[in-house]
Structure formats: C-alpha cells, structure tokens
Design goal:
α1 (7-20) crosses α6 and α3 (210-219) runs parallel beside α6 (313-332). A hairpin with an 8-residue loop joins β22 and β23 (305-309). This protein has helices at residues 7-20, 163-171, 210-219, 235-246, 268-274, 313-332, and strands at residues 4-5, 25-29, 42-43, 53-54, 58-61, 74-81, 94-97, 109-112, 116-120, 126-131, 141-142, 153-155, 176-180, 183-189, 194-195, 206-207, 223-230, 253-257, 278-281, 283-284, 286-287, 293-296, 305-309, 341-344, 349-350, 356-365, 372-376, 393-397, 403-404, 409-414. It contains six helices and 30 strands. It is 17% helix and 31% strand. By secondary structure, the protein is of the alpha/beta class. The chain is elongated, with a radius of gyration of 31 Å. The protein has three domains: 4-23 and 182-332, Molybdenum Cofactor Biosythetic Enzyme, Chain A, CATH 3.40.980; 53-142, Molybdopterin biosynthesis moeA protein, domain 3 (Beta Complex), CATH 2.170.190.11; 341-414, MoeA, C-terminal, domain IV (Beta-clip, Beta Barrel).
C-alpha cells in the first residue's frame, strides 16, 4: 500500500518533476506573448526616453540665463515644439513646448503654461511670455534614459509576461521574444458512467462535466491540449493507451481523471505498476483530493510523467490549482512568485485536524476596518457545484490546526 505523504512532500516531488520536463523554446511576436514564460533574460537595447523631453505643456529655457531678469520681464519666443518634432539645435532663447517634445540643446527647465502669461498673435502663435515663477534646473523634464537605460535588465528568464510587460517591450521596440513552448498534455478520462455533456444520460449515467471544466482550466494556463481520450472502466484500454503515449515524443505530460482510489474499478495505479512506472506518490494528506498520484512512465526516451487526479470536479480543480500549478511554476524557476495572497480570516473556522484543507471562499472588505479578509463558504461538500459559482478563490487551511480564530492569516489562491 502506498504511503500517505504530506502536501509539503508532494510539492518537493512536483518541483523536481517540473524541472525535469524539458519544454522547448519558441519565438513569438509580443502581441501573442501575453501570459507566456520567458525563456531568456530580456535587456533594454536603447535608452528611453531616447532624448531629454518635456514632461509638461509650457515654455522651455536655460534657467541660469534668466537669473537676474527683472520681475515680470517679457521674453520673446523663438518657436514652438510639439511631440514628434525633430530635436532643435539651439544655443539660446525661450521655446514654447508640448509634452513629449524634445528639448532644445541649451534648455534645462520647463515652466508649465499655467504659470505663464502668454502674449499671442491673432493666429494663436506665442510672441512673448512672462514667467510668474522662477525656472528650476531639471524641473518638468524627462531625462534621456531615466526610464530605461541601454543594457539594463527588464525581465528575468522565467518571468510571465503581463500587459505591463508588453507595454515596456513595445516601448523599446522589442517585437519578438523567446518563450517556453506550452506544456503539451494528453488528457485521459475514465469511468463508463460518463456520457457527453451534450446528451441526456440514461439511468446510472452522468454527464462528463469534468472534461470541459478541466479543458477550460487548462486553457487559462500555459498548456496545449495534445489529445483527449476516454477509456471507460477498462484497465486494458488504459494500458494500451499509456503504451502508445509513452512512445509519442510530442507528449510532455499525461493527465488523467478518475480511477485512482481503491475501488474495484480504480485501475490506474495497478496498471502503472504493471507497466513498471516509478511511483512518486499516490496518496497526499489533503482534502479534497487525497487519492492523487504522480508517476514516471517507462518506455520513453525522455522523462514522461503522469499526474492522476480524482474524477470528482471539485477535487479535479484542487489538483490543477495545488498540484499542476506548482509543477508549472517549477519550470519558471524563482523569477516570479505564484499569485497567492495572505490575508486574515473573516470569521472563526473549524476544520479536521491533521490534514491540509482546500476550501472554497473569496475576499471581501471587513466592516470593522475596511481591510480585505478571506471568507469561507458555508457549504464545502465536494459533490456540490453550486457553491463554486458563489466563490472567487481557494483558501488553504494548514494541516495541524483544527480551529482557526478570526484574524488568522491564511493563503488565498484566486480562481
């Protein structure tokens, strides 16, 4: 009988497996790179801004040249500069300037237009200006390279690109990036009771809701569905399929649902033993999802692993969030932390002692001090799907405790 291991022990195995699976790198246009993991560090190839430019609409001048000017002195305007105009090589004078326009060579200060009195001709062109405040060197100027400097590192290998990352890359003219290819996953569902969710079940049958649910969860991750299969309750069919997938070099991971507990038709673990697969774990001290397994398949010329999840949809979701996601995170390294939040519980909570519990809940604002707190749904039956619609996050409750008072810090993982 397989030994029950702790969730922390399971995470160690998942980290090791994640680092063994060799995901290829591919080059993508940045418009297609959102949510993808960088395969290399990325550095700036140029300064940004590329030149000194104005941060305000106003008037630019050399602040030192105006020292000693009479109060309310009127200064002639040499010209106007707008964003998109080429830099002006000038050694003196005052210029009207718009936000983003390059500063003339000699200018080192910009006074906002609201601090100026401007005399304009009939066409609106500025003829002269009176400064109502003193100009200060460097004021209202964006210095060349103050945002990004040539050679500075923007992103680390393993970082996931978000919309802000795409903004920075586009700003610097980076059109393509090398990212990790998506993990190619072969899906296997088990259970003869399952019929298509598009059909009406006969007595004793249920719709395969886990299939589209699982595929939807995977589509939000760096996963490519390699293939989908169903073996019913046939251990022989499952064995033949595993033998085929083990020889397929285009599969990175096999993900199964169902048939991993201890019933008569729970054939996955036994079939893997018959195939001499190396079992890493088969039972983890968590709820829901205790009968979850991880094994290395034999017969392949590269590391190929199988992650077996319970078939019940809520336990399947736990398997994705708390087992597959750490495996994917290990492939990214330590450049970016997982998206979990620590926050206090809104109310007292009782739980079974000696097991890590993953419960459904969400985040709300405390009426007492307007701080964010974690709330737990009152119905945690793993067979109930309805409560899932009212929740926004998983909440991890630690193994040792059987009672957590309000205010206890817990880990919250948004769906």
């Amino acid at each position: 009988m397989e030994t029950l291991i702790s969730y922390q022990q399971a995470l160690i195995y998942l980290n090791e497996v994640g680092r063994q699976i060799n995901r290829r790198a591919e080059t993508l246009e940045i418009e297609q790179a959102l949510g993808r993991t960088l395969a290399d560090d990325v550095s700036a190839s140029e300064n940004y801004p590329a030149w000194n430019c104005s941060a305000m609409d106003g008037f630019a001048a050399d602040a030192a040249s105006l020292i000693g000017s009479a109060p309310q002195a009127s200064h002639a305007i040499k010209g106007i500069l707008a964003a998109g105009d080429p830099p002006v090589h000038s050694s003196s004078g005052v210029w009207e300037i718009m936000t983003g326009a390059p500063l003339p060579d000699h200018c080192n200060s910009v006074l906002p237009i609201e601090d100026c009195v401007v005399d304009r001709d009939s066409e609106g062109k500025a003829q002269s200006v009176v400064f109502r405040k003193a100009l200060q060197v460097g004021k209202n100027i964006r210095q060349a390279g103050e945002d990004f400097t040539t050679g500075s590192r923007l992103f680390l290998k393993g970082q996931v690109l978000d919309a802000n990352s795409i903004l920075a890359l586009a700003t610097l003219g980076v059109a393509q990036v090398r990212v990790l290819a998506k993990l190619r996953v072969a899906l296997i569902s088990t259970g003869k009771e399952l019929v298509s969710f598009r059909s009406r079940p006969e007595p004793g049958q249920i719709r395969n809701s886990s299939g589209p649910f699982l595929m939807s969860l995977l589509q939000t991750r760096e996963v490519e569905i390699h293939s989908t299969h169903s073996t019913g309750d046939s251990g022989a069919a499952f064995r033949r399929l595993i033998e085929v997938l083990s020889q397929d070099a285009t599969v990175d991971l096999v993900l199964t649902t169902g048939a991993i507990s201890m019933g008569q038709f729970d054939f996955v673990a036994g079939t893997l033993r018959d195939l001499s697969a190396r079992s890493l774990f088969q039972k983890v001290n968590v709820r829901p999802g205790k009968p979850i397994l991880l094994a290395e398949l034999k017969g392949s010329d590269r590391p190929l692993f199988l992650l077996g999840l319970p078939g019940q949809p809520i336990a399947t979701a736990v398997g994705i969030a708390f087992f597959l996601d750490p495996l994917l995170g290990a492939q990214r390294g330590s450049a970016q932390a997982e998206k979990s939040i620590w926050m206090p519980l809104a109310e007292d909570c009782k739980k079974p002692a000696g097991v890590v519990s993953f419960v459904r809940g969400g985040i709300r604002t405390s009426a007492a001090d307007s701080a964010s707190v974690a709330w737990i749904h009152s119905n945690q039956q793993p067979s109930r799907i309805g409560p899932l619609l009212e929740c926004q996050a998983w909440i991890e409750l630690p193994e040792a405790a059987d009672f957590l008072p309000a205010g206890t810090a817990v880990r919250v993982v948004p769906f």
